[in-house]
Fold this sequence. Notes:
Layout: H1 4-9, E1 29-35, H2 39-50, E2 55-58, E3 74-75, H3 82-116, E4 123-131, H4 136-147, E5 152-155, E6 166-175, H5 178-186, E7 191-192, E8 199-201, E9 204-206, E10 211-219, E11 236-247, E12 255-258, E13 265-269, E14 272-281, H6 290-301, E15 306-318, E16 324-327, E17 335-339, H7 345-360, H8 368-371, H9 382-401, E18 416-418, E19 423-425, E20 432-434, E21 439-441
Parallel strand pairs: 1-2, 1-10, 2-7, 4-12, 10-17
Antiparallel strand pairs: 3-6, 4-6, 5-6, 8-9, 9-10, 11-14, 11-15, 12-13, 13-14, 16-17, 18-19, 19-20, 20-21
Amino acid sequence: MESLWRKETGEIKTQRKKGERARDYAGTKYDVIVIGAGMAGILIAYYLQEAGKKVLVLEAKTIASGQTERTTAKITSQHGLKYSHLLNTIGLEKAKLYAKANEEAIREYERLIGEKGIECQFERTTAYLYATEDERPLKEEVRVATLLGVDAFYTEETELPFKVLGAVGFRNQAQFQPLQFLKALCKELTILEQVKVEKIKGHEIFTEDITFAAETIVVASHYPLKNVPGFYFLRQHQERSYCMALSGCEGMDGMYLGIDGEELSFRRAGEYLLLGGCGHRTGRQKRCYAKAKLEEYMKKYFPDAKQEVFWAAQDCMPHDGIPFIGRYSVFTPNLYVATGFQKWGMISSMVAAQLLRDEICGIRNDYSKVFTPQRLHFRAGKQEFLIDMKESIKGMSRGLFNREAPRCTHLGCGLHWNREEESWDCSCHGSRFDKNGKILDNPAKKDIRF
Ligand SMILES: Cc1cc2nc3c(=O)[nH]c(=O)nc-3n(C[C@H](O)[C@H](O)[C@H](O)COP(=O)(O)OP(=O)(O)OC[C@H]3O[C@@H](n4cnc5c(N)ncnc54)[C@H](O)[C@@H]3O)c2cc1C
């Protein structure tokens, strides 16, 4: 399922000269090796290189071929009903830092794109959260977001083709074409494609047949590669969501996300309108097909529209609702990670790039208090932790006792057949395999042998 961005941009070329093999890069000790060439990996590599580090990026497939090419590419600090949740769980000071880090990331995108003259349809606009069933949580969100310094307002008027009870607007947010943006940045970086990392030990990175070395290693592989230490598989799950690009309908200026129903998302992208939603935990498909459901909405709200492209993606959802950006674990001083972007990885990748550049260059950054993977937010995410535990126990039992379901090569959970996408999906940690057992999505690293 090719996304609109990929269709428009095609393949992103690397800088490698003809005849150069990945092996030719293995003799050098780099200051930093970044694993993964998605939005996170590329931005982290770019800012570290700009700070004077010698950087190499290793990518298992091709540039931006992970979740990044399937995003809806809103750049916003509005992450659902985030701020009322953060105020209640991590307190005023840290909630303020979360908002500030994200607002700064929007400005940094604008500065970088302007300075480099990157043509990627970047535009400032308002992001809206809307409600069709109960508007009260939105009123609280506006109050808290304003308290935290966000330029937020409440309204009942929107451009949506249906009646809403209320909406929260955040002014001065943005949207762009993510692959056009990456295409420009990648020209300046050294990226090796088709190089899949199998193992990291100390300062060394092992693929099937090559060993690379770096003073510092950053894992930006979407789902972290190592189970231990770090234990990220106990701290987040994955959610899958769907998107279509429609032609022949009126565009909208704002970007929209629903807090109820199928949490439908809308934004304009050039001549198209992007309609998204129908999300669920990976491996736990709803009874009806997401594509059919979105088509129903398309016909209902945009009867003259034509569906041009349909695609799906998934993201890591940390229990406390905050990305993990910082040291991989207390036991690995030279290893860093950026994950847990909860479907807001465009902006979180920029936050990660700024934060990791500072940490790796020895500069104090206040935001690490919020995003550090070593945080202990006891009040946040207790319920999500319990749900994930229950799902993992069910998945492991399915792996042990259900002989009809293949087992995930990550931790042995029993997989679920996804009829819509014809894949085997894991509801514990979100790995996916095609019908022949080939990996589609991590954390699994090995294919299934039927
Ligand atoms: C439906 C949907 C809509 C979204 N819309 C938005 C939005 O509007 N705004 C927003 O901010 N965010 C959005 N997101 C989230 C955003 O798309 C992701 O958070 C972001 O793309 C993740 O980027 P990444 O670089 O971490 O991961 P990826 O893009 O997946 O990149 C990771 C890379 O690592 C590589 N890799 C993996 N394992 C290895 C290995 N062993 N060796 C070498 N390389 C490896 C992969 O091949 C991949 O290229 C959305 C997510 C979904 C699901």
